[in-house]
Amino acid sequence: MAVDDNKGYPMRLTVDGQSFDIDADPDMPLLWALRDLIGKTGPKFGCGIAACGACTVHVDGQPVRSCSLPVGQVSGAVTTIEGIGTAGGLHPVQQAWLEEQVAQCGYCQAGQIMSAVALLDEVADPSDADIDNAMGGNLCRCGTYPKIRSAIKKAAALKTAGL
Amino acid sequence: MASVGKIARRTFLIGAAAVAGGVAVGYYYYRKPFPNPLEAELGKGEATFNPYVKIGADNTITIVAPRAEMGQGISTTLAAMVAEELDVGLDRVMVEHGPASHAYYNAAILEEGGPFAFFDESMTAQAVRSGLGVVGKFLALQGTGGSASTRDGFDKMRQAGAAARQMLVAAAAQKLGVAAADLETADGSILHKASGKSLTYGAVAAAAAAMARPAEVRLKDRADWKLLGKPQKRIDMLAKLTGAPIFGIDVRLPEMVYGTVKMSPRFWSKPVKADLSKAEKMPGVIKIVPLETNYGHGFGIIANNTWAAFKAAEAIDAQWSDPEYPLSSAAISDVLKQALATKGSVMRDNGDVETAFADAPRESIIEADYAVPYLAHATMEPMNATAQFRDGALDIWCGNQAPTLVRQLCANAVGIEQDKINVHTTFMGGGFGRRVEMDYALCAALMAKETGGRPIKVTWTREEDMRHDAYRPAAIGKFQARLGDDGMPIAVDMKMASPSVIAGTLRRLFPSVSPLGPDKTIVDGAYDQPYTIPNYRVRGIAAPVSIPVGSWRSVGSSVNGFFHEGFMDEIAVAGKIDPVEMRKRLMAAYPSAVKVVEKVAAMAKWGEALPAGKAKGMAFTLSFGSWVGEIVQVADTPAGIRIEKVWIAADVGTALDPGIIEAQLISAAIYGLSAAMGQEITFADGMVEQSNFHDFDAMRIFQCPVFEVAILENFHKMGGVGEIGTPPAAPALANAIFALTGKRIRTLPLSKTVAFA
Fold this sequence. Notes:
The structure holds two protein chains of two kinds.
Chain A lengths: L8 E7 L2 E7 L5 H9 L17 E4 L2 E4 L12 E2 L1 H4 L7 H9 L8 H14 L5 H8 L9 H16 L3
Antiparallel strand pairs in A: 1-2, 3-4, 3-5
Helix pairs in contact in A: 3-6, 4-5
Chain B lengths: L3 H6 L3 H10 L3 H6 L14 E5 L2 E4 L4 E4 L9 H13 L6 E4 L11 H4 L11 H17 L9 H28 L6 E4 L2 E4 L4 E4 H9 L27 H5 L15 E7 L7 E5 L1 H4 L4 E9 L2 E8 L2 H10 L1 E4 L8 H12 L4 E6 L2 H6 L6 E8 L11 E7 L2 E6 L4 H12 L6 E5 L13 H10 L7 E4 L2 H6 L7 E9 L5 E10 L2 H9 L25 E8 L13 H19 L4 H8 L4 H13 L10 E10 L2 E12 L2 E12 L6 H21 L4 E2 L2 E2 L17 E7 L16 H13 L16
Parallel strand pairs in B: 3-4, 8-18, 16-17, 20-21, 24-27
Antiparallel strand pairs in B: 1-2, 2-3, 5-6, 6-7, 8-11, 9-12, 10-11, 13-21, 14-19, 15-16, 15-18, 19-20, 22-23, 23-24, 25-26
Helix pairs in contact in B: 2-6, 4-7, 7-8, 14-15, 18-22, 19-20, 21-22
């Protein structure tokens, strides 16, 4: 079977502290470059129009919807759910999620956690209104919102305690 | 409630379909145990005891939890059943979904398929129920649905764990030369206390697995449970918090290509003209192939990456034939109205409803028309599957609720025998009934024939997913009640019309079985409620609209919970009786129901005065064997109505994991509230009008109320958990909005009438 080349442009991406050289159509959303070209499947495809937040990653620490950001426009370092912690060394937000047993199907949780990490980097002790503002773009069809809220508050406490 | 003669006369649909599938295999086949599928796939040093337990020489203990994990926590609870009896902690075991196999048939999924309310324990009802359990084994359907997995697994998976433990103990007794009765087990080891000698399970696994299965298996008393009945840490939690590749969409294989589908936007229509040339020339596109399945027609796009496939799908220029169903939502609604005007099938008929209304004074009668729309499942993970076809065999990876159906339908589609198909079931990013369907698997299987042996991952766009669902059907209902002098209802007459979920599902999954008889799902949640009213009739009519409809979390009860409980609230208001008090009186024959209503009312401090601008509404639905009352509190705010608080009391008979059950009750209520607030699927020109989360949204965190949940265990039979929180959510909300605003809203979504904050 003949396989055409992508007719892409060579570019270099820094993802989770590692450099990747890829050939991609600069219009390809960052999400698909991460998932299909680099092999980072942590960020999820949910809607493709920045309406559900499942694809949330950080670019230079700022949360972005990677499904709607052309890879050609990415200039900063990308951090995905796979770059904030590991099973053996969880980020305080992941630790709080574990203690609160937040996830059900789990599909939106990578995006939820990345939004929460960015919120807590900005506001150390977020109010309910802060949580509503920061997390309103992250949809969860299993309805884990009450636990997400309590886990964010727990994570704030864990971070303050330096854990 | 029903005589044997009546049942014979009214062949009800699910039974008819199931028997048609079962007759061919006969009674002998039913009696014969299915072979253990784990025997074919044992690793070095591994031994298997039954389809649920594998133990390695290194003491690695693997439990198979053969039900779809779509977020409901079933893998944790099923594993706990085996682990409880095997005497190991959940942190000591590996849990796998296991292969597609008839050995994992779900008997409970059909047990409540007969024309009886759950509380009907007459001999007829019990006989038909166990008969349908037999039918479940005839069909040997490995399926997840009907909130049936814990009920199905409770006995057989505990027995699997206990049998394995007894065999391990017997083998250890032989090896140590002591009596089995002198041995104890704990955490994967067998201890001889008198001598202090101990052996791991792994050390005797091979010898134990070769022993005869014990004739009698003893199960623990509930008082001795260490895991069951207590909240467990979910076995899938860590993977879900670290971005591990656990979903179908995360599958990556060497040499893999990518794809998507563009199916006809009109259901069942064929392309009459298609220009693929522009799409075929796009960068990264390998090939575009026609697709024909039981689900309809369209094209499969094969490309170097998913994005290239998406772009090419957009560039396909096709015209599609006219649909076989009405073009617009208004025209569909007319078909439903025509159906509602016919006589229908009677599924409940107490007293003499005709006479009760014939001589009723006009002022004692209340009437209401209700309607709900089509709904999409909108799982967070769009439909997808990965397939590889080489050397005449097909491997398929996907999240699915019925592995044996994946195997059967893909075998038919690809034209190979079922034993040439390996189904790898992944975790799923939401199910809610959507992954009972097989369209995603069929598309990937067919496209895998076109890649020269390379694996292909086929991912649908959200738009394709939203517009090609098996929808919760639209439904309408006509309700009448006659009130007595005391304000209590003495007669109710309920009639609802809706496209048939069962007929729709058969067309897609078992096209050779023709639907016969009425579809019970049209009246589920209305005919089977624990109210005693002297004259009580419920009729259902299947409306002939062939837009695909399927199982949507709580199925018929998602419709009739709203109809029935909205109308009960209307009766209470008209009769000037408190809705909680009225329900307690009408449910007096069913103490479990009364206790649920009393509990939720007490939790919500029902009856206490609220500040101006706040109000509460309540609803109750018995579904999937569990009794659930919900109270919703709403507040009037400048931005619109805000749902402030929801109280839920649920009697599930036996609560195997209270943490997971509470999470499921809240989840299902949010699922129901999301739909009630704003969701609808509408049609124009034969096509779905909605496409993504901007026009088919769900509740967001800033709209989410505070929840308080109580789990009761009064009823003597175990009920389901995953769906039961959905049916009362919409009516409790609508009833609260009536209490707040005086507006009685009988048509969903509520956002057509009121604004939400």
